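**User:**
Everyone, produce one record:

**Assistant:**
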Amino acid sequence: MDSGSFFNQTFLVLQESLLTFFKFYNLLITLRLTMTWFPNFNPFVQPFYLLASLTDPYLRLFRGLVPAIFGIDFSPILAILWIQCLIEIINELTVDQIL
């Protein structure tokens, strides 16, 4: 096996790993946001606390960038869109563009 083939396989594994991670994290954020709409979920018990502790640091990066409208915070939409953009960029990358 030559080094080019090894690099191609390594790149594909890394690309798929990143895509899987970002898609899974996007799902976690969606679950977290859905959970906030239902008041009967206690965010301080497991597994909801774990979900909040995994997603809140990322969501805090976008909080305040978009002003709340009628008391609704729309900044998580930016967070989800940013992850979607990263997914599209990673999806479009090829080995030829890297070299």
Summary: The mean pLDDT is 88. DSSP finds four helices and no strands in the chain.
